Amino acid sequence: TSPSTKDFSVPSNIKPKQMLLSAIIGTLCVGFGSANTVTNYQMYPLTMGAEQYIQNASLDKSQFPQGMNTAYGSGLAFDGYEKDGSIRLVSVTDRGPNLDGLNVKDNNKTYPSKIFPAPDFKPQIATIVLKDNKAVVVSSKPILNPNGTAVTGLPIPSGQVGSSNEKALTTDITVIGYDENGLDPEGIAPDADGNFWLSDEYGPFIIKVDKSGKIIEKFSPANGLPEIASQRTPNCGAEGVTVLPNGHVVFFIQSILNLNNETKKTATICRVFDWNPKTQQYTTYAYPIEATYKKNNDAKLGDIVALDNHRMLLIEQGKQADGSMMNKVFEIDLRIGQDITNLLINGKPPEYATAAEVTPYALKKTEVLDLRAYGWNTEKAEGLTVTPDHKTLVIANDNDFGIATKVTDPERQKADVADYTLDTSTGKIFYKEKDAAPKEANSTISIKPGGETSQVWTFTFKDKL
After folding, report:
1. From CA 434, how far away is CA 185, in angstroms rounded?
2. Secondary structure of 35-79 in the HEC alphabet?
3. CB within 8 Å of 45: residues ≥ 6 apart
4. Three-class DSSP category at 150
5. Contacts of 426 (CB under 8 A, 6+ apart)
6. What are the percentages of helix, strand and coil residues in the chain, rounded to 5?
7. Residues 296-308 pLDDT 10s
8. Tens digits of per-residue pLDDT, 194-235?
9. Is 267 helix (H, G, I), strand (E, B) or coil?
10. Residues 6 or more apart from 51 whose CB is under 8 A from it?
């Protein structure tokens, strides 16, 4: 794919009347960040060597001639400039290639599952350079446990801190098992000592690693992090992380909390934590999600980056009520918003309150960038960083390793993988017929291309952010 480059501030699809209206709105919004225009933007396709592709015997070589591409882009941080001025970045993968799986019945309990086509994949930290109109992966290394062994991305056993209560399956639909030290990294941020802080969806965990990728410290809701963070929806844990100049770590929960299994669809806020790793004290902020989703839990936060000790940028995205996707960058200021750690509204936490009720306590946000107005067309913007001059944003997508679940069933042309259940006692797969007993299925579940490429974009603004 050739890079997409534009040298003007207004996207070409905006008509003159829209330009005039934008100019009027921009004049009214001076002082709130909205008038800052993009002067240049570019898409860089992510490229990597053959050694960074993931091989698996179950892959159809005609569809995956090189294997699965490693999906760097779950988190992103600025790492300096090359001698020629090229931007250098560090990025992190998530837990590895995984697909939505069928239900698993085990000991009379039913669990959701994920299919891991490369179960021995190790989550990676990579160095990426933006050069020659490409985002080039120049090196990568696995995240290491304190004993030096590589971390896997397999789920944590049920009942342990960080469990997503999922079963892990191979592509031939057999149960793999668990890893009590498994990680699902989603964000990366450097600190003043040259270490990195990672956010993780399983725990949720916040993890400090050294330059080699070895874990120095690991925090969870049972060990130093806010206990309420444990009430995340599975696979919506700690998503973005940034380190402030004062050494505090700011992270957020990807989507709305599910308090007591009662707020997962109705809450109007995501929680942002300003956490001091030395004292383990924290302040909690309410980030108000947009009011444009069909279901509030469709709102997802992607990544966060600090501009100073108070101001930061974050990505909000998700499927809208009209079926379209939204991917935007907003600015927040922690000085504008109250600590909601112990706040009760009508006797309950803010997740139970209406948007109007929580607004007086919530952070105020200002839209900085609408990615889709510039041609962004992938689902997940999950890496965000800024250059030291605060003029250029760098944003990466997560293409989920370029794979998707394929269900082949001669009796059902449009069946979804969630309609099937594996019975571990018999090894058989059953299909849930509507208003009828489950029926044994002659189905095959395999991998197909996901349709999205890995990309890194830059957006340069006229004025300092």
Report:
1. 38
2. CCCEEEEEEEEEECCHHHEECCCCCCCCCCCCCEECCCCCEEEEE
3. 1, 3, 134, 135, 453, 454, 455
4. strand
5. none
6. 10, 40, 50
7. 999 999 999 999 9
8. 999 999 999 999 999 999 999 999 999 999 999 999 999 999
9. coil
10. none
